[in-house]
Amino acid sequence: MIRSARGLVGTVPGARRRAVVGAVVLLAAMFVAAGAGAAPATVADFSDIRFWTGSGTHAAALLLQFPTVVGTGTAAQTAEPAAIAWGYRWNGAASFESMLFALAGGIVGGPRPVAGADPRLVVDVSYYGPEWGYFVNEIAYDQVGLGPGWSPLERHIGPYDPDTGEYPAQYQLDGAGGQWSGAPLDLSMSGISTTPLVPGGWYGFVQADGSAGTLSFTQPVAAVPEPSALVLLGGGVAAWWWAAGRRGRRRGQRG
Fold this sequence. Notes:
Helix 1 packs antiparallel against helix 2, helix 1 packs parallel to helix 5 (228-254) and helix 2 packs antiparallel against helix 5 (228-254). The strands form three sheets. Strands 1, 2, 5, 10, 11, 12, 13 and 14 form an eight-stranded mixed β-sheet that branches. The protein has a four-stranded mixed β-sheet with strand order 6-7-8-9. It has helices at residues 2-9, 14-34, 96-103, 129-132, 228-254, and strands spanning 52-54, 58-65, 69-70, 77-78, 83-90, 104-108, 118-127, 134-142, 154-157, 167-173, 185-187, 202-208, 214-215, 221-222. By secondary structure, it is α/β, with parallel strands linked by helices. It has two domains: 2-35 and 227-254, no CATH class; 46-222, no CATH class. It is 27% helix and 28% strand.
């Protein structure tokens, strides 16, 4: 983004050039603040969630709790953070499926819906027909490059482990009002397609054997949006100033 904008600065004279430089500096600061290097922010309520997709008056949160130890024996290492949250907005009625597929930037299994908003988040699903819909086999989240507080590795929930009986167990807390109270989530008895979203609720996955009817999740941190939108914004601002400079030069030539 910066290199492209700098190339345009030389074509714009005087005060307009200074304005372009100011816009570029501002956008660079926004890029750094929103992208890599952002420390994890604890989520106390929905206002703390940074990564949102969808639109509407209703809101719910996706909550993923990952194992905090990766590998075994001498290769074992601690992985942070423990839990991560995303947000989803909608109107009317929506399901857990709607939210998960709107957020997952990669979807494996099928029939595959259109991939969602976060390119770091990938889900592997199986489809059991119109009556049961989709069930989740595995979830992966790529934390490489996110900065301090984010272990630089790919996190996983699942797949099914025959030795422990653990799998991506689905839990939910309806009617939470968008607040993180620390209350345990309830084990879901259905798949993502048949789980309706309730505004203000938390809907999540954890590596577990499903024997616990309720489970306390770790308070999550906010998933970090990719800065691609800021790159597009920066290009748009620079192009606008470049076009304004051309119009000004043409007026000067006519005068």
